[in-house]
Specification:
The chain is α+β, with helices and mostly antiparallel strands and 153 residues long. The protein has six helices and four strands; from the N terminus they run αααβαβαββα.
């Protein structure tokens, strides 16, 4: 019986240590991130250094841009979305070729965006002018669709 208790205590201590180490690593990787959050989802952390995910827009920044009636194109995505992982390189490439700025809104980190911007699924590209939505495409598309959307907006 004593051996069983000792074994159980060792297991609990090991799992606790592993949880603390993982938490400390996530916090360290999250510090100074563009999302302004102290902790991030592990899938977001994986994208922090990815050049395709550098033009982040925060909820407050998007709200302000719309309130000021600025023109802005926003790519709503989730790091856990397999279709976003396929669409993102195409969207970023097309935007760079056209000289168009596309802001990226991470719905995994800022879930309120689903409701606030009526996003039904990811990936979704939305263009706003004068504080209002003027165009939208969603789902994984062909490169030509992204070229047309970004070229016209």
């Amino acid at each position: 019986m004593k051996k069983l208790i000792i074994f159980a205590v060792i297991i609990v201590v090991l799992f606790s240590a592993l949880a603390l180490i993982t938490s400390a690593q996530n916090k360290q990787q999250s510090e100074g991130n563009p999302f302004g959050k102290s902790t991030l989802h592990p899938e977001t952390i994986k994208q922090l250094e990815d050049p395709n995910y550098q033009n982040i827009i925060l909820p407050e920044e998007l709200y302000s841009a719309l309130k000021l009636e600025e023109k802005v194109t926003v790519y709503f995505y989730s790091p856990t979305c397999e279709y976003c992982n396929l669409a993102t390189p195409q969207i970023v490439s097309v935007a760079e070729e056209l000289g168009t700025e596309v802001k990226m809104f991470n719905l995994l980190e800022f879930e309120q965006g689903w409701r606030e911007y009526e996003i039904d699924g990811t990936p979704t590209l939305v263009h706003y002018e004068n504080g209002r939505e003027t165009a939208r495409i969603d789902g994984l598309r062909e490169r030509e669709d992204y070229e047309s959307f970004l070229g016209n907006n």
